[in-house]
Design goal:
Pfam families: OMP_b-brl_2. 27% of the residues are buried. The protein has four helices and 25 strands.
């Protein structure tokens, strides 16, 4: 299994180099206030970048522009970043590392701040590793962090310094706003964006929202029928005369997949969950001297709900087409499966209880217009006789899957 995983991960890394992240129309302003227009490679940064890839036109070589040489850059109608030195509180939000000081611990840092709302009052964000901080400015005033900090009280309980609410009430309150509006405001991007939009509208001021996620559908629900090509072998460690190698069989499978796209890196990563009904039926006759009638007939009727939980990585080919790779851990829920041994006269000789264990599944597929898809999936061998110390089994499956996304 380790070899299969290694090969799959190697393929993932190799193909990732060919995945398409587009150069899009943009600009930057250098330290001499000179504006240069061209194309910027939009990698949909998870963390605020310290550099970006730029080229004048499609046919020209690209070059890296950095925080040291650029004051501002943007991708038209998508994103805008402005270089500023700001005071940042990097206090940990991890419960195990909380400070006992309720006050923020500010340090001056220079970053490309991401503009979320630009207007008379503007909202910015900084994502760097495990921290997410929001900042604001009014007119041409200094850019200031909105204060939010978890801390420990003297009795070791967790408290929150939600100073951002007081800041907004003091600096950005409108006659149409109630205290309750601010008191209910969470320190979350969507809520803060809406607040800043409302404030600019209250002042009858124009504004621009740079929020790529608001246009995205980050959830897909698909039906996924398909065909399984499966085999099963069982081995008795005490009596090898009971060993059985069942034939390869074709069976139907039907799944419903929920896909949760990650809102960064151009939605190239996703979490997938796919409850799937599958079955395998086979029969094998073997001549056995120690069985009445001289023949032992082994029958398996294996039915289960598989629950693959994993990650998917997309590799864009063009605006309509993309490849994807999956890696999942499969939980298997037995549905009254049977593994029985019969004599020649069809009387029951013995039976085994089916108790399956989890396994790994790896898939490669193609998706068209985010609606239609096809996938070839390989499962590592699965143990289905998990309750026995003297029995081993290997259930192997290759699946061919069709997909249709309706949500």
């Amino acid at each position: 299994m380790k070899q299969h995983l290694l090969l799959f991960l190697t393929a993932l890394l190799s193909l990732n180099g060919y995945s398409q992240i587009k150069f899009e129309k943009g600009y930057f302003i250098d330290n001499e206030d000179q504006k240069e227009e061209g194309l910027i490679r939009n990698v949909d940064w998870r963390n605020n970048p310290s550099e970006f890839e730029f080229k004048i036109s499609e046919n020209k070589e690209s070059r890296n522009e950095t925080l040291e040489s650029v004051k501002e850059f943007g991708i038209y109608d998508v994103a805008k970043y402005i270089r500023h030195i700001v005071k940042v509180d990097r206090s940990s939000g991890n419960i195990k590392n909380l400070s006992e000081d309720r006050n923020p611990d500010f340090n001056e840092e220079e970053h490309f701040l991401k503009l979320l709302v630009e207007g008379k009052v503007s909202l910015y964000s900084l994502e760097d590793g495990n921290i997410t901080r929001y900042f604001y400015s009014k007119d041409d005033s200094e850019i200031t962090q909105l204060i939010y900090k978890k801390y420990l009280t003297p009795d070791k309980s967790i408290a929150i310094n939600d100073g951002y609410r007081q800041q907004l009430w003091n600096d950005l309150s409108c006659s149409a706003f109630s205290v309750r509006k601010v008191e209910r405001l969470e320190y979350k991007k969507r809520e803060l964006i809406n607040y800043f939009k409302d404030y600019n509208e209250c002042l009858e001021q124009e504004y621009v929202v740079y929020d790529e996620t608001q246009q995205r559908d980050l959830f897909n629900l698909s039906i996924r029928p398909g065909i399984n090509y499966s085999s099963l072998s069982i081995e008795n460690l005490a009596v090898n005369s009971r060993d059985t190698e069942f034939d390869n069989e074709i069976g139907l499978r039907f799944g419903v997949e929920a896909e949760f796209l990650m809102p960064f890196n151009k939605n190239k990563w996703a979490i997938i969950i796919e409850p799937t009904y599958q079955y395998y039926r086979s029969e094998k006759s073997q001549e056995k001297d120690n069985v009445n009638g001289g023949t032992l007939i082994s029958k398996v009727d294996y039915r289960s709900i598989e629950l693959p939980i994993g990650v998917r990585h997309y590799l864009y080919l063009n605006d309509s087409s993309k490849l994807f790779l999956n890696l999942s851990y499969v939980i298997d829920l037995n549905l009254g499966s049977e593994l029985d041994f019969y004599r020649m006269d069809n009387t029951l000789h013995s039976n085994l209880e089916v108790k399956s264990r989890g396994n790994i599944a790896m898939g490669i597929g193609y998706r068209f217009k985010d609606t239609y898809g096809v996938e070839l999936r390989y499962h590592t061998s699965r143990e289905i006789l998990g309750n026995y110390s003297h029995w081993n089994s290997e259930y192997r499956t290759v699946s061919f899957i069709l997909g249709y996304s309706f949500f």
